[in-house]
Design brief:
The complex is a heterodimer. By secondary structure, chain A is an all-alpha fold. Chain A has 6 helices and 2 strands. Chain A has one domain. In chain A, strand 1 and strand 2 form a beta hairpin. The N terminus of chain A is likely disordered. Chain B is of the alpha/beta class. Chain B has 2 domains: 303 residues, 3-Layer(bba) Sandwich (FAD/NAD(P)-binding domain), CATH 3.50.50; 183 residues, no CATH class. Helix content of chain B is 24%, strand content 19%. In chain B, a hairpin with a 5-residue loop joins strand 9 and strand 10. The longest helix of chain B is centred in the last third of the chain and has 21 residues. Classes of the chains: A mainly alpha, B alpha/beta. Chains A and B meet through helix 4, helix 5 and helix 6 of A and helix 3, strand 5, helix 12, helix 13 and strand 20 of B.
């Protein structure tokens, strides 16, 4: 976590392609997101997990890179979802019923959100201050805004879910840089051997976190 | 796509999970030639459980690497028969398995014996409270077998699984500090109980203090090195926290892959065919005899495997689906309350309560073992007087800390009412993750006339077959049961000294919500019993209508249980196999004459 302390939190005006990484590590170039989408994803992830006194934020943790890399996996193409027609909408408690895989949800969702913000604020989402971005995201999370036939709620839930996955999954997937997500919450990662700590009742676990590849923090 | 006819075998086994592996092992021991058809991939600890690559939470619990691929086939779900059922498009409320080992590879390891009263629940309720106590529309039934019938098979399954636990009584003598409500056993557990994690230990002490009867949960997670009766070995569980959703890299969690298949694969009478998707069981012109099964092989060929005996042993609802697609047994009609296939479909009624402790108290929720923990049964089965309470059923209550990892911690977040993202979420999560204890009321769900399975009229699977349709909702009896039992948990969390508590209770009128994980403990739909009007299977899990078909799985439960189903499924598999071996093979035909 200390290693990330120097990482600049993304400000509203910064070009969001440079996240927290050592000077020697080249910036990540997205393969799925367009430059405009990439800027939106950064500006949104930055609010979902902000950089603060508690720990690193989504940008420092490489969450946008994680999401972009996920977009090349079968999951993002809906290969693990039942995607046969017809697509009939019903009560919310019967679950997701749209014909869109995660890649479609991002493409349509970001376009819809960007247009919504531009119309309401006359600016791009990434150019708004943090408080305004928070209020917009809250509106997407809880309100009834539609981006065409894609509810803003669906897009928000997709983005939030992937953001959490990126911040707290093994760094081999591109997020949780420097194991910063895991150290923030005190999760020891791939340590996975607690034979000697099962009955050390009430004490904090003494060993630091480790990734599948053996990276430590 | 070619049409291929295979060489006849004695028995074909559909599905490579616990039930299928047990039946295949028993039948090959009896000298039968057996072909096992598994629609998923072959799996082993070496390929799917190798450390450290296997302990990847994103791949395991979030991308469902070893679970069913819903893109091929799923189900449709609705709350009531006046709704249009919609496809279950994403894994959420329940997580069926796929591949060799089935759900037995990704399960947690909780390994119970069924309470004796649950097996004769209709009789027991009538006797204790009178028939009028049974609510209108509840199809309450007995199993047609008793605990004494099944005891040798519970014992056998525990020895195969290497189950850890502490007995209360063996052969009627009190021998230990096990569950005082548990029936007497013919032998001890093969391994001693696992250690309590801290949260479970706090729960144990508090439950004792308020007068309940806590015990170590029986767990098919080995507490020590073990060699089972098939000669396969297990290593001691190291509480790594990667049980549920993963192949155990320590060879500690029992699975068909670790505990049975190493002894079965080399048998010359046994053949495993993977990526073989069974389309239907074929019947002869009389519709009373199966001739074999038709499946699609990995190259899309249509293959007929002739067999004298067909064991349908896929997951609960796949078994019901195959029976409906094959025309085995009369489909259930909820309007007339007639027919049996699809009848008495049940789930499990689980809610989670969370207690938060001072920040100086580290509960280390990442330490875990899937089956271990501490439970009390004071409000399970017929262990308490239902008379004044006016509901049927109950819940064991437990701390079963299976290991909460990074992504799950983030998604759980802080206490209810705190935001799901942003700085407030982050602080709440960090303040609580290491200092919480979670406990479940793991309750029964009764069977109702208007809760059932049938074939969907609209949606088809990737093979052109109509998908299975679930009509399911929570009922007042079950909601009141949950609320009563959870209210008792408040006494325990108070005695634990929790700083704050959220009691997880169902709300009156609450509808089943497919979007949130609840449990994969689905049951019923092709139940066992003594009456062919109310059961699809006789007491040996043999189809009443097609006597060379046996259907093994939680589909046989007439109503939901408070316990996890695997222990009962394994015991029923050994029970059925025993009667096939000792009676059926000598004289094939119905094992129960009407």
């Amino acid at each position: 976590m200390q290693g990330l302390a120097g990482a600049a939190a993304l400000t509203s005006t910064a070009l969001p392609v440079h996240s927290a990484r050592s000077a020697s590590e080249p910036a990540y170039s997205p393969t799925f997101f367009t430059p405009a989408e990439w800027a939106f994803v950064h500006a949104a992830c930055d609010r979902l997990i902000p950089q603060d006194a508690v720990g690193p934020g989504a940008i420092a943790l490489g969450v946008p890179e994680f999401i972009d890399r996920q977009m090349a996996t079968p999951y993002a193409f809906g290969k693990s979802w039942y995607m046969q027609a017809p697509f009939v909408q019903g009560p919310a408690n019967l679950g997701y019923q749209l014909p869109y895989a995660p890649r479609d949800i991002y493409r349509k969702g970001i376009a819809g959100a960007a247009a919504f913000v531009q119309a309401k604020y006359g600016k791009a989402f990434q150019d708004l201050d943090a408080a305004t971005r928070d209020s917009i995201l809250t509106g997407f999370e809880t309100g009834d805004t539609l981006f065409g036939d894609l509810p803003a709620k669906v897009f928000f839930a997709q983005l939030l879910g992937n953001t959490m996955e990126g911040a707290f999954s093994d760094p081999s997937h591109g997020g949780n840089k420097g194991l910063g997500g895991w150290t923030t919450i005190g999760f020891p990662g791939a340590r996975a051997d607690f034979m000697d700590w099962v009955d050390q009742y009430g004490k904090p676990y003494p060993l630091g976190t480790v990734s599948i590849s053996g990276e430590t923090a | 796509m070619a049409s291929i006819k295979m060489k006849p075998v004695d028995a074909v086994v559909i599905g490579g999970g616990w039930a299928g592996s047990i039946l295949a092992k028993e039948l090959t021991e009896a000298g039968q030639t057996v072909v096992m058809l598994e629609r998923g991939a072959d799996r082993s600890t070496a390929s799917d459980g190798a450390y450290p690559g296997s302990i990847d939470e994103l791949e395991g619990n979030f991308r469902h690497k070893i679970f069913q691929n819903l893109s091929k086939t799923s189900v449709t779900i609705r709350n009531s028969s006046d709704q249009t059922a919609l496809p279950y498009r994403q894994m959420a409320a329940f997580l069926p398995g796929e591949g060799v080992g089935g759900a037995g590879l990704h399960w947690s390891g909780v390994h119970f014996r069924m309470p004796p009263d649950d097996l004769i629940l209709r009789t027991k309720v009538k006797e204790k409270y009178g028939e009028k106590f049974i609510p209108e529309g509840m199809n309450l039934q007995d199993y047609g077998v008793t605990y004494d019938d099944l005891e040798p098979f519970f014992d056998k399954a525990e020895k195969v699984f290497g189950t850890s636990g502490e007995a209360y009584t063996v052969n009627g003598q009190v021998v230990g500090k096990g569950n005082v409500f548990a029936p007497s056993r013919s032998d001890h557990f093969p391994l001693p109980a696992l250690k309590d994690v801290y949260g479970a230990n706090m729960f144990r002490k508090a439950a004792e203090e308020v007068g309940f009867h806590p015990y170590a949960m029986p767990a098919a997670n080995a507490s020590a090195q073990y060699t089972n009766p098939y000669g396969v070995q297990m290593g001691p569980c190291n509480f790594c926290g990667y049980c549920s959703g993963y192949a155990c890299y320590m060879y500690s969690k029992a699975s068909p892959n670790v505990n049975i298949l190493p002894a079965l694969r080399p048998d010359p009478n046994f053949e495993l065919r993977t990526e073989a998707h069974v389309l239907r069981v074929e019947l002869d012109g009389t519709k009373t005899r199966a001739t074999g099964v038709t499946y699609l092989d990995r190259n899309g060929n249509d293959v007929f495997q002739p067999a004298e005996l067909v064991i349908v042993s896929a997951f609960q609802f796949h078994n019901v689906h195959l029976m409906l697609l094959s025309g085995i047994g009369k489909p259930y009609d909820p309007v007339a309350n007639e027919g049996v296939v699809g009848r008495n479909f049940v789930y499990q009624n689980v809610t989670t309560t969370t207690a938060w402790f001072d920040k100086s108290v580290y509960t280390n929720q990442f330490i875990g073992t899937g089956g271990g923990g501490v439970a009390f049964d004071d409000f399970n089965s017929e262990n308490f007087d239902h008379g004044p309470l006016g509901f049927i059923g109950g819940s064991p209550v437990w701390v079963n800390q299976a290991g909460i990892k990074g992504i799950a911690a983030a998604k759980i977040g802080g206490p209810p009412g705190t935001p799901h993202w942003g700085s407030a979420w982050k602080k709440a999560m960090v303040d609580t993750y290491q200092h919480s204890v979670r406990m479940d009321a793991h309750g029964t769900n009764m069977a109702y006339r208007d809760v059932y399975l049938d074939l969907d009229p609209t949606w088809k699977d990737a093979y052109g077959m109509p998908m299975l349709r679930m009509t399911f909702d929570w009922k007042d009896n079950d909601i009141r049961m949950n609320r009563y039992v959870v209210s008792q948990i408040a006494k325990v969390t108070k005695a634990m000294g929790a700083r704050d508590v959220h009691l997880g209770q169902r709300q009156p009128g609450e509808h089943f919500d497919t979007r949130f994980y609840q449990t994969t403990h689905l049951a019923g739909g092709a139940v066992m019993g003594d009456d062919p009007k109310t059961s699809a299977l006789n007491r040996y899990l043999q189809s009443w209508d097609v006597s060379n078909v046996f259907v093994i799985g939680a589909n046989a439960f007439p109503q939901g249980t408070g316990y996890n189903p695997t222990g009962m499924v394994a015991a029923l598999a050994y029970w059925s196999a025993h009667h096939i071996r000792t009676t059926y093979l000598k004289n094939p035909g119905p094992l129960v004459q009407l």
